[in-house]
Design goal:
The chain has 319 residues and is mainly alpha-helical. The protein has 16 helices and no strands. The chain folds into two domains: 80 residues, Ankyrin repeat-containing domain (Serine Threonine Protein Phosphatase 5, Tetratricopeptide repeat, Alpha Horseshoe), CATH 1.25.40; 228 residues, no CATH class.
Length: 319
Amino acid sequence: MSWDLSITAQTLTFLVSFNALQCAQLVLEGEAPELRGMHANPNCINKYGYFPLHQAAERFSVDMIKLLLRHGASANVRTVGKEIIEDLLPLHVAVENTCLHKYLEDNLSPSQNHLDYIYNLIRLLCLPEMKIFLDTTRLLAEKTNNLLGELWKYIEDGKLTQSAVLLLAAQEQIRGGCSSSSKKDGFDMIKSNILRLSFTLIWGKGSNEMPQKLLEEMKALYCAGLLVDVISRVGEPLSAYIQAHSEVPHVEVLEHVSSILKEYGFCPTGDSMDTLNLQPYDCKKSDRESCGTGLQMQTEQLRKRPICMLQRKRLRERK
């Protein structure tokens, strides 16, 4: 009697969800004698409608993502099904979950002055705790098709935080136009799109358009334009600083990032950033001490959030 055995998508998803790197490598390679030639398919969708790379992206596991990509996983697979938000790339999962970070949720408000909002957003993304999220996004962006198109969707929808995460993490791909054959700078292309959309809003609206709504749309575009301008000019030194300073007190990071911005002609203020709000959970240590336990809890909580968290969050936004 013979058995028709296979390594299911659910099995691989389970291994990825627990970040079991060695086990995942074994089933992907299929070389262990016990597997009898079977190996897992990295592009097999599970019953919930997402792929192993979506799960790895949600856990912000750079090593697992590299492993899956090395064994042929596609970064261009999209979620599908009734139990999940459809049409999400692994890149979307990483970006959206990054935006759920406590630091961003606690320290950014739409009521802030637009300049303070943009500068505070950039400074927050340069904090050491954000490095793993930017690294994950960068890795997925390198393998994602039509990256500029995905970025433009965020900008067009007025999603500044998501736009900032993608701009800062994937600036190298954006500068290259996201194509080896393209000589255009993606930042210039995005700036042109913003300018074109601004003219459309000003001249293309009918007489029934509410002035207040138009002002809000123009403000959002202005903020997006400023964000793109800042990252296009200061993104490289900011990225170099993030990579070289993985364990630096918050106050020092905020001061240094502000000095980099000023060096390139931008004028951020320090009045709107309260470092007391940069304490994860109930961490009581001073800003110049390591809050390693609290930071680990924050990262682990985000890593363990199921993809349906994004669904619930978006449903709330639609109400």
